Every structure is written in C-alpha cells, then in structure tokens.
Protein 1
Amino acid sequence: MNKTSLALLLVLCKVSLLFAQTSLPDNNSGFYMRAGIGYAFPQAGQSYDPIHAFYSGTTNNPVSSNSTFTFSQDKISFSSGLHGSLALGYMFNKNVGVELSADMCVAARKYNYSGTTYFVDSASGIIGNRSVDQKSGMLTILSPSLVMQTAGDKWNLYTRLGFALPLNTDIDISVENAFNTGEIDIYTEKLKSKFTIGYNATAGVSYKVSGNMKVWAEMSLLSLALDADELDYVGLTVNQQNYLPQFAQNHPTVYLYKSSGTYPADNRTFAIPYSNMAFNMGLSWKFHKRTVVNHVTPHKYNRQ
C-alpha cells in the first residue's frame, strides 16, 4: 500500500468518526405493551340470589311438606372463567411506571340452580322442576394501575396496584319451569347493575427472552361487587310458543332495584359478586425509543 492510499484511508476513517452518530444510554424508561390469557376463580363470592333462590346449587321440597326442604349451595363469581388481557404501559424509570389494561372474560363460567318445588301451594298439587342458568356476557374491566418492579437483567419481579372500572356487566339468565301438568315455561332475563369502582392487585415475575420481549406469569386479585339495578324480561315461551305479549299485559317486564325506598312497593337492591383470584401468563414488548443523535461536522470539530 503506497503512502497516498494510506493517507486517503486515514482521512476516510477520520471523516467517518467525525460524522459518527452517538446514542444516549438507555435509562429503561418508555412505553411497553403486554398481552396474555388466564383463568379466574371465585374469591369471597356470594351464594344467595334474592330473585331465584341460589346462584348455584339445588333445593328440594318434599311432596309431604311446603315448608321443609333440603338445599345445597355454592359460592360464585360472575367474573370467573377464561380471560384475555391487553395493556399499554409507560415506565418513568427502571422501577416505577403506570399501566392501563383491559381484561375481558372471553368464556365466562355458567352457573346453575335447580330445584323441585310447589309452584302454588301443597293443596294445588302443582309441582315442578325449576332450572336457572346464569352467566355474564363479555365482561370487560379497565384497570389504571401503578407498576413497581425490581428491573433485573433477566428475571424481574413486579407488582401492580390499581382500580377496577367494570364495563358490560349484564348477566344473561334463562329460567325453565317444567310443571307436572306437562307445561314448560322458559323465561329469558337480563340483570343489569349499577356502576361501582373496584380494586385489584397483582404480583408476578417476568423473564427477558430478547432485547425487547419478555414472558411473564402472575397471580391477581380482584375485589368487585356491583349493586343490582334492574331485571328485564326479554323473552317468554310456553310450550315453545311466544307468550311475552300476553304476559306483559298483566305483569311488569322491568323490575327496578333501589338502595332506599319503601318496601314492598320498592325492590331492595342486592350485591352481585364479581371478585376473583386469577392466574395469568403472556408476553410483553418494549417499544424501541427514538435514538437521540448528535451529528458532528468537520466545521464544528475544527472549532473545538
């Protein structure tokens, strides 16, 4: 290599260095997104349904008596079942951030109550089997939360504390009365609730699988109970024939529930259970921050 080529190579290297782009060090702040699935179990649930006897369980009125009966009941939560979640968060630094998540009950658990009872009184001899199925629709809960984490290089422990804002909390109800006379009545009902703010807490662990991707697993607790607002009759068939118009002529099809009023003119509200304990897992992605660059020109370099 001659002197001219060597000099040219040195000049090119110096020019490349002068125009090099330098990045600011990553301080672990910025936006991230996570998605996951999980299953929720009833936590501190309730068992008694003032409308239909029990949310989940059985009763039996023996033929010889109208006042003595056996029963079995279970605690339930209308948020139990298969869940999916999607969240967007922002870390102020490596340890503290905020997050807004949407948790959806994509396959809610169905609860059933069944019983054999007199529908009028023991003298009438009208006995039948009642079966009540209750299930929440696409329950969605928005949760603004505070995030705290240990920010380890590979393994990371974290916790979230926040509020639970319930959306789409209607309960779909199907009631079937099968009488010993051969008649079968099927009621379709929708139970609506008042808006109430709940609380949630989460503890979990994540593992970095690449520069911006983590897998995570966590346990969460939701504390939420909603007051009943109204019960709507949306369908009624008698022996598979539509009977709702005839029923509506002599019966109300909407029942309102109040926190205060005069009984029995006003129906007293009651709590609908939504609390759960859930196990979840999924992936999270950290968005690449915009690189802050400094362009160094020969003119600026010479001035230095």
Protein 2
Amino acid sequence: MRLTPFETAHALVALTRLGILTRFRFGGPYWRWRRSTAFGSREHTLPWRERIHAAFEYGAWVARMRRISR
C-alpha cells in the first residue's frame, strides 16, 4: 500500500507521539510487544526498507484510529 504525503505526515506525528509516550524506550515492553505482533519471527528477515515502510503504515493506522475515536 502506498501512503499519500498527508498520511505519511500523520504517520510521522503518530509515531513521534508513541515514542514520546514510551520515552523512546524501544526495548521496553510496549515496543517488544509491538514488534512481535507486527513482524513475529520475520522481523530480522525483512529488509530494512520494508520494516520502515511497515512502521509508517502502522503510524498511519494509529493516526486514523485516533481520528475516528474522537
């Protein structure tokens, strides 16, 4: 799925917000859980570019869910 520039900007804001809320502790419980549910055992087999794209898709999804819940 290709993200629009609008979705990409919102994804970046959502990911930054999640980073701030978790104090950027990417080895913490939330991010460990997030990686295991998003990638499972495939995490280390995915190319770097695909992992970044998947992270932005997740950020766009988070932004949409926050917008819907308001």
